[in-house]
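Weekly structure sync, notes
Attendees: PL (lead), two postdocs, one rotation student
Agenda item 3: pending single-chain targets
PL asked that the sequence for the first pending target be pasted directly into the notes so everyone works from the same version. It is reproduced below exactly as submitted, 144 residues in total.
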Amino acid sequence: MYDFLSYYVRDYMTPQPRTVGRDTALRELQGLFDAHDFNGVPVVDDDGRLVGLATKLDLLKAFTLTPDAMVPHYATIMERPVHELMTREPITVTPDLPLTRVLQRMVDMRTKGFPVVDDGHRVVGVIAREDLLGALRDATSSKG
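Predicted structure, written out during the meeting:
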């Protein structure tokens, strides 16, 4: 278990993750969620810098009802761009952050994962609950 103390985000993140642009239609986002069982996808600008995070919860927000809104057709909602509903300024981590810090942050925030960004805020990976569980498993199995 002590091995876990020496693990970093870069050791267990998923590098070069799938991303979407600000103008990606919700229909396409739903397709990514369906095809890959993602919980969220980084939203990037043309230079690969993070501008937001689009999650399954954000997608559900498109269907919330308000007293003064008429319900549009499903197809109309699904053509809306991601930037209208994405989480802006999401919490991020860097590749050199110890996994112990990521684990604590993930538990405290009750989140499923974080985008991993470099110094220029370009997305270089994602780290999710499954990655941390894999690291813990590796740390305990490496000794025996």
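Discussion points:
- The chain has a mean pLDDT of 92.
- The first strand starts at residue 14 and ends at 15.
Action: rotation student to compare against the earlier draft before next sync.
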